[in-house]
Amino acid sequence: MRLTADEVASVIEERIKGYEKEFEFEEAGNVIQVGDGIARIYGLKNVMSSELVRFENGAYGIALNLEEDNVGVVVLGDYKNIKEGSLVRRTKRVVEVPVGDALLGRVVNPLGQPLDDKGEIKVDKFRPIERKAVGVIKREPVNTPLQTGLKSIDSMIPIGRGQRELIIGDRQTGKTAIAIDTIINQKGQDVYCIYVSIGQKSSATARNIRKLEDMGAMEYTTVIVANANEPSSMLYLAPYAGAAMAEEFMFNGKDALVIYDDLTKHAIAYREMSLLLRRPAGREAYPGDIFYLHSRLLERAAKLSNSLGGGSMTALPIIETQANDISAYIPTNVISITDGQIYLEPGLFYAGFRPAINVGLSVSRVGGAAQIKAMKQVAGRLRLELAQYRELAAFAQFSSELDPTTQQQLTRGSHLMELLKQLQYQPMPVEEQVCVLFVGVNGYLDDIPLEKVKQFETDFLVELRKKHMDILDDIRNKKEITKDTMKELASFVEHFKHSFVRG
Question: Rounded to whole angstroms, how far apart are CA atoms 440 and 430?
Fold first, then answer.
């Protein structure tokens, strides 16, 4: 078959008309300075704030300083292979982390990459680490308890689902112990836990992970680790990654608990980054936006309205003080953002009262809304009794003779303080807490020798579980102490006390 010149020309003309050339534009810049984990880039004119950029050697960074003639980028990971003149490309996306059930039971870094040698994490969903907190209209008042399993907290400083409760105190006073006990106590409570370790020693983090595994708590927990030897950029990202992972559960109508251990080291890492980026320093050399750093993180904790699924995200930030100074810059900032604080006192800790909670300085701004009725029935008088005890104990040391009423109040207070002691890794179900506190506030322990109070409590619970599970079941199911249950419990306590004293 022969084609004429006109036919060939028409075929070529059609092909030319149908030809579409696709151009792909990629904005790139060059490194003009690098050092101490910070790179300055020339040429990325349209880069967004907090955008992820990719270096020539495969490393990533976050654009934080957008200046007129250059962009200040914080390098994620090792910066030593980045050289002056290296090419840097925009990714046009912010930092995202993997989210979902696949992360439960895993130990990951702030970018969601596994650290536990259990293989790749297969997820199909990602969330940006930074997200605007839900508005007031989309929230609901906190009304469901989040039980810590610790008598002193659940009775006097209750935490509700969706609350932000600060744990504050000097180093080595048991702050992390409270957080780990709270995670252990969520077993069977349908609460998904995220534990964020920021700037801690690797050995301490490994010990906590091993304990969670031993107690079967890793089944519903994700651990995010940014240890002390990592770049400050990773420490900066860690709590936001934790919040993003917890939000995935919250927006799916589930309850999540996220622990930031601790935000003091997070603030120090941010200060280091800011000073290297040449940002102006303010009080204690922290940058001016240090309050915003933590408020935009902690405001993400919420109890969502039923129209959004009714999920919740509870935040337990930890702050380390120096020499009991809760009036320092970072402690006062975080106290003003949160809904209360649990203050741990070194004096109590070294005196053997553990958890070393100072009930006078600790407060929950949610209060009774986060308690079941049974706990309110027994704990109402507890705080008052302890407040009177603290006041009288201060005066009693100056007086040699005390009247019988004062002596009785001091005895009651010392026995209640002894009762509130609790060993680490032994959280207690709320119904057992109610029964133990019932014994204390009703004076059944007043004539028991102080050194035998803990033995009384242990034997009492063993006997109660053995012979009167119906009392515990009734309190757990009805969430209150009915008149019949109260009579039965009082009768059992009297009978047990009689046999305990005799034996």
Answer: 15
Q: Which of 421, 419, 484, 492 is nearest to 462 (CA)?
A: 492
Considering only CA atoms, which of 424, 363, 426 is closest in space to residue 173?
A: 424
* Per-residue model confidence as pLDDT tens digits over 29-50: 999 999 989 999 999 999 998 8
157-203: per-residue pLDDT in tens?
999 999 999 999 999 999 999 999 999 999 999 999 999 999 999 99
User: φ, ψ for residue 55 (rounded to 5)?
Assistant: -85, 165
**CB neighbours (10 Å) of residue 190?**
8
Does 90 participate in catalysis according to the annotation? no
The catalytic residue among 365, 465, 476, 502 is 365
Determine contact, residues 496/457, Cβ cutoff 8 Å.
no
- CB distance 266 to 239 below 8 Å: yes
- The residues, ordered by sequence, that sit 6+ positions from 421 with a Cβ below 8 Å of its Cβ are 352, 353, 354, 454
- Contact by Cβ (8 Å): 453, 445: yes
Closest CA to 163 of 184, 191, 198, 128: 191
Tokens matching residue 196? 């964020």
Compute the distance between CA of residue 221 and CA of residue 191 in angstroms, rounded to an integer. 9
List C-alpha distances in Å: 288 to 152, 193, 270, 291.
37, 32, 11, 8
Dist. CA 503–CA 499, nearest whole Å: 6
What pTM was computed for the model?
A: 0.91
Strand segments (E) across 199-304: 221-226, 255-261, 302-303
